Amino acid sequence: MKPLTLKDVAQHAGVSPKTVSRVINGEAYVRPEVRSAVQKVVDELGYRPNAFARELSSSRSFLLGLYFDDPASTYAADLQRGALARCRALGYHLVVEQVTRDQPDWLAQCEASLRAMRLGGAILTPPLCDWPELLDLFARMGVAVVRISPGDFHDRTAAVEMDESGAARELTEALIALGHRDIGFIQGNPEHHAAARRQEGFEAAMAAAGLPVRPDRTLQGDFTFRSGLAAGERLLTGASRPSAIFAANDEMALGVLVSAMRAGIAVPDQLSIAGFDDAAIARMAWPPLSTVHQPHVEMAAAAVELLTQAPATAARGTLLRRLPHRLTLRDSTGPAR
After folding, report:
1. What is the Cα Rg of the chain in Å?
2. Does residue 268 have a cis peptide bond before it, meaning omega lies within 30 degrees of 0?
3. Quick check: 3 and 50 in contact, CB under 8 A?
4. In the prediction, which pLDDT does 51 show?
């Protein structure tokens, strides 16, 4: 079949090709009822504009960048899924980039990559969303940025976040409501500001209940399975052990679950375990992990929308979108015994 063209869409919608172009590119000067009618025809016909032709016919770039320090994590996979789906729906393309500070010339490499790509906007994820030198680079290159869960420099870019501290407090309160008084906590990567906020929520709930946060029950992790496994083995070895362990993400909670299995400790009959994020592994584990559902997919989609619908405003750092979380209790937690 002959590929659909912009003129075909205009003919079906009864408008000019210029009007269709304005709707597809998200431009102004189109009445709401006309925009809705054109978009309906676009969806019904399944029309997808040619990205290269769009760039040639306008001054805009339809390529967005999604930046991670670790693109292989389950957290990154969820964000990629949300960003990719929204980009496809809006006629944009997505490129995933990894940025680490392992090499002395990392910033120069990032700048060279930016010059080669001509991005229409970038999404920065933790922890690199809080690197000032990286924010300076994007500002200098004139690339609008939306950050996911930033901890600093809130006036510099638009952001999408959730209430990390409040969510951690709710989960801790749920453990306390189950009768747990001796609760261990595994901290996240200290480079991620979300790790500190989750610990704040945990400690706030413990303090409100009049329960101590014991130093020997609080261990450092780095959001990886391996660190959760090591911390779990330490917490579960000795004369006494906590009745519940709250790990600051699901990968570490899964490590605790494996350490409990190795020690012959039944979950949740002898030990309750909770995580944070509601990654796919939380649902696939046995028993399934109690956790906080963080809307990663929706957060990434919201970041794409901020970049595509209001890039100039996003660049000025005047937009903040906070999405709701959800407490999800599964079979890895139960009454204290």
Report:
1. 23
2. yes
3. no
4. 54
Can you tell me which residue has the tokens 């957290």? 75
Token pair belonging to 61:
């770039």
Q: Are 315 and 307 in contact (CB under 8 A)?
A: no
One-letter identity of residue 110: C
Contact 327, 234 (CB under 8 A): no
Structure tokens at 311: 């890039």
Rounded Cα distance, 85 and 303, in Å: 12
> What single DSSP character describes residue 268?
T
pLDDT > 70 fraction of the chain, expressed in percent and rounded = 91
pLDDT tens sequence across 287-311 = 999 999 999 999 999 999 999 875 5
How far apart, in whole angstroms, are the C-alpha atoms of residue 277 and residue 140?
A: 34
DSSP H helices, the chain, are 6-13, 17-24, 32-45, 51-57, 74-90, 106-117, 132-141, 164-177, 193-208, 225-235, 250-262, 280-284, 296-309, 311-315
Tokens of 285: 């584990």
In degrees rounded to 5, what are phi and psi of residue 319?
A: -115, 135
Q: Please, are residues 244 and 183 in contact by the beta-carbon 8 Å criterion?
A: yes
For residue 216, name the pLDDT band (cuts at 50, 70, 90): very high
pLDDT value for 56: 42
pLDDT value for 26: 67
Q: Quick check: helix, strand or coil at residue 152?
A: coil
Q: How many angstroms separate the first and last alpha carbons of the chain?
A: 68
What is the distance between the alpha carbons of residues 170 and 121, in angstroms, rounded to a whole number?
35
